[in-house]
Fold this sequence. Notes:
The protein is an alpha+beta fold. It has two helices and eight strands; from the N terminus they run ββββββββαα.
Amino acid sequence: MSEGKTMHLDVITPDKNAFSGEVKFVVVRTELGELGILPRHADLVAALEIAPLRIDLPDGTRQFMANFGGFMEIKNNVITIVTPNCELPDEIDEDRAKRAKARAEERLKSRNADIDFHRAELALQRSLLRIDVKHKV
Length: 137
């Protein structure tokens, strides 16, 4: 690729470097909405939501990852995403995600005062994200 048509993306979790490479376009969901990032984007720091991460590669292919929040920094044509977890579709066990979704929905329907509803809502969000990203393949 010629100069200025790509940028570098690093997706870092506590356990691994989930992605590192040149990209043409990235879409993330911030607390203020979706943000599309092209090469030479202005410097920026933003908090990320639990949402799909879309990566357009220089060869024209598109890749999705399940991103579980964190934050993003854009500086000098480099995007760095630091997140608690980020999964490729082939790393996602759809049956497990469906079971987690059912458990979270059951907890949210419960009237039990011992249930942590915020935690159940986050579990539901994560399971729905995994199922969504798995189907984007």
